[in-house]
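chain below, 648 aa
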Amino acid sequence: MMKYYGYAGTILRVDLTEEKIRKEPLNRELIEKFIGGGGVNLKLFHDLQKPNVDPFSPKNPIIIGAGPLVGTLVPGATKIVGTTKSPIVDSEGKHFIDSAVAGGMAGAMLKKAGYDHLIITGRASEPVYLKILDEDVEICDAVPLWGKKDTYQTTDWLIGKEGRCGVVSIGKAGENLVRYAMSIVDYFATFGRFGFGAVMGSKNLKAIVVKGTKEVEIAKQKEFLNLTKEWKRDIEKIPIIEEWRTLGIAAPWAVQSPLVREGVWEYSKWNELYGPEKWLKIKMKKRNLACYGCPMACRNDYEIKDGEFKGLTSFTGAYYLPARVGQRLEIEDHRKAVKLLDVCNRAGMCYFTTSQLVNWVTRLYEKGAISKLDTGGLELNRKFEVYLDLFEKIAGREGFGDLLADGWYPLSNKVDANPDEFTEGTGLFKGADVIQDARFTRLHPQAFAHITGPRPHHGGLQSMYTAPGIDTDLLKREDAGKMGLSEEELNRIFVPSVSGKFNVARYTKHCQDRMAVYNSLGTCIIHALWGFLGIKYLNLELIAQIYSAATGIEVNARELKKRGERVFNLYKLLNVREGFSRKDDRCSKIWLTPRKTPDGISALMDYHGEKQISKSDIEKLLNDYYEERGWELKSGTPTRQKLVELGL
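prediction:
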């Protein structure tokens, strides 16, 4: 049997229809070409799934992968990737392939149980949960849980039964196939917001519980320990580390909050109602929750200590969530925004999409564009009680909530209203509303990734440029300069263009390839934010050394990034196979429409805020992006020459 370092060496296959469980060795060629985690997930998905399968068909597989660094001492190496076809419907009825990361404990437990990847196919005849305890793998009865226990209660029940373990669970929204239902991982993490929980529900799969007792073997232990220990020591040098461990990613509130506001209230009012001092009053613990073995501890939790919802406890990834939705829905009491978040968390339902859909239909009702005939007799207004009722109805697919549960374009067809005209929204891409509105964040690579990514998300492209106005020379030296780029590539990026002082499209290409590496290794992008501080941080030069020491597979940053490029191109091909092309890589009309706010006009600007970006600018940038990728300009798809070059 081949010896693996960093990898468990086994793929676990579970057929829910046939109730069959099979284990097979991880192919060495797979990891040499696609690294692991998200990369190998995509190759397994490509080989297993036929195109144009309905997302709720038993033939739509769920694949969960833990990369080679997951379960090791690498800071933040907790990310597992869940891959499936999303139930989200775009304007033409197409569905993209979703591959999303989740933190928590489940990934480390999967690796320690002895598995790099879990493939789930079919549909159980009755509700089940999957139990993985080292070599003991069993499909178990979940009838006592289905329709009776929410995501937190399910997690509590399974931990009570199995002890310290990782749990992936769904709630009412997943059971009822709400198209943006989420799976909740270890209370506070998720496999994204594009319907992973609904696909689990379509398979009658209530939960996955996993517990492992093995250790991940390391090839060069001394070198590996030296690299990880030095990195951990430098984390303690981050100037806001203690504030971060209290407030999570909202710690730099003064810097970040202006970039994620909703534009409904004056910023000063929002800051007063939802600033950090409000959060500290409802915080359950002095320090945040942390993913397995991560020293950053950025995961927030809540306990409402007074008022109507006294005693309510809930979890989430960031305080920005209730802060933003509170402004979006004009809820001045932050405790009520947390209550709505808790409804979504327990039901396993995307808080952002739910609140934005509710925001849209209440605005339509106010304008007379829809009536009680459309809402099934409901009178919509901007009151908390109405919101709460609608949230519950969506999760249960009751009445008007059943229409909202299908998402933007199916709903628009029923109410005869165009969601692309909802300029109060954050932008629609490939059928989904996005978390970041680039009219506030500006057009950096993370924002441009919404346009060009196979899934309509920023793709976790957090880096130095996530903060506003970073000097171009610093970006070139400490960000792009540490991902194995050639001088020619750097010079193509850092030159004035229609996107300002650098070419955001060409930059985005390389950032996406880098992110494909991180997702394949299982490392958390939060650790890449600190490059401007002169301390050790997550970059491809460092991670190539760590990967080489962990696995014994010697690579440098450039070689690792080439594998990331191969992974990203395969991801693109999966979506091309589903009918996506350049016409789908279009900028939302919402982003291109300046937003009038109480603080002034917010328009789509270049990263340094010097130039407004137009629709024609976006088209030129798309040409640059496809050219940088070696793709066809007209179709926006990989050329045969590029696929041959990448061994695809």
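The mean pLDDT is 96. The CA atoms of residues 148 and 278 lie 33 Å apart.
thats it, cya
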